[in-house]
């Protein structure tokens, strides 16, 4: 709807798939393994600080870059987990979720016609943010089933119009975690072609099989990388929409110029709570990971037992399934959008069609994404429903 009213850059961007699939789950009463949000809130002590701050303040505009103590907590967290030192006064910016950090980065850095190399499938806001900036996306396919970086395809996507590489690791929707070797290739190209890397690391604490590595830590990358995190993911408060980025002072300043005219500032009373979250013990962060790892295994086992073909998931909230053989066997459509529209009726479960995350839809037409950031009983219910088909 409203297609005719939208400016040419936004043609084709309808309602996000997450809103659509959650609405479908609500309409049909299906178990919602579509939109990626946890169904258990984050740490009580963090929520209590937020509640106290709403009652007692601070409730007015925080400073433009974010409250100083939250910026300090972001810097401490980066030092603790990544071994990277950032100046909280000049190299940290608090944003309205990672979404704003990504959009503000594109708006700040890209001129009309500049090119942004992205790895498809892409998280849904990427293509829209690039388009809103008037830039041009150059997708590089991470091909299923292993989603390995095709180094030649990546290198040939870079032209003299390339300005930014927009990287997401751990990667939504595939669950891929870029290896250190792959990141080294990306870093080398960024340096050789003088590019900026925007590294969306919102799932940094949800890595299962090998460690998460920040590309900002590679030689020569510190001053050309914007690293992005999210309290939604790290503390399971997705509705708070508090995010942060770290970047060298000139880069942060550029992004802040755009950010100040999008939201100016956000979430004043939540910022002290997020600072406390970032200072939680290592045990909190390993607990978050271990909990999700057990959920990944639970869903993977259940879907595999039901005969579904699960791809490897190394991180994030998401398990990707190759639907072809199961769909054929059960007389369901083998095209992921039609499959996901039919699944609530047939099985009482909602998943997200991975096809929508691909520039070349064909490459994802046989894939569906199931979120496992849900209570065990909810996962078991979904599994039982699918096994009963
Ligand atoms: N990047 C990725 C890869 C995501 O999956 C999400 C969804 N949480 C976001 C960015 C947006 O994060 P936020 O809710 O903090 O805006
Ligand atoms: N990041 C979540 C997902 O991928 C949802 C974010 C949203 O609803 N915009 O499902």
Rg measurement, Å: 20 Å
Structural class: alpha/beta
CATH fold call of the largest domain: Aspartate Aminotransferase, domain 2
Strand order of the largest sheet: 2-8-7-6-5-3-4
Distinct small-molecule ligands in the complex: 4'-deoxy-4'-aminopyridoxal-5'-phosphate, glutamine
Order of helices and strands: HEHHEHEHEHEHEEHEHHHEEHHEEEH
Helix content: 40-55%
Descriptive notes:
The structure is a single chain. The protein is an alpha/beta fold and 389 residues long. It has 2 domains: 2-42 and 283-388, Aspartate Aminotransferase, domain 1, CATH 3.90.1150.10; 44-280, Aspartate Aminotransferase, domain 2, CATH 3.40.640.10. The chain has helices at residues 17-28, 44-56, 68-82, 97-109, 124-132, 151-157, 180-192, 231-234, 249-262, 271-278, 282-305, 324-329, 336-347, 376-387, and strands at residues 31-32, 92-95, 115-120, 136-141, 162-168, 196-200, 225-230, 243-246, 309-310, 318-322, 349-350, 352-353, 367-371. The longest helix is centred in the last third of the chain and has 24 residues, at 282-305. The two termini are 34 Å apart. The mean pLDDT is 97. The structure holds 4'-deoxy-4'-aminopyridoxal-5'-phosphate and glutamine. Residues 97-99, 123, 168, 172, 200, 202, 230, 232-233, 238, 241, 243 line the site of 4'-deoxy-4'-aminopyridoxal-5'-phosphate.
SSE blueprint:
Elements: H1 17-28, E1 31-32, H2 44-56, H3 68-82, E2 92-95, H4 97-109, E3 115-120, H5 124-132, E4 136-141, H6 151-157, E5 162-168, H7 180-192, E6 196-200, E7 225-230, H8 231-234, E8 243-246, H9 249-262, H10 271-278, H11 282-305, E9 309-310, E10 318-322, H12 324-329, H13 336-347, E11 349-350, E12 352-353, E13 367-371, H14 376-387
Parallel strand pairs: 1-11, 3-4, 3-5, 5-6, 6-7
Antiparallel strand pairs: 2-8, 7-8, 9-10, 10-13, 12-13
The protein binds 4'-deoxy-4'-aminopyridoxal-5'-phosphate and glutamine.
Glutamine binds at residues 16, 18, 35-36, 172.
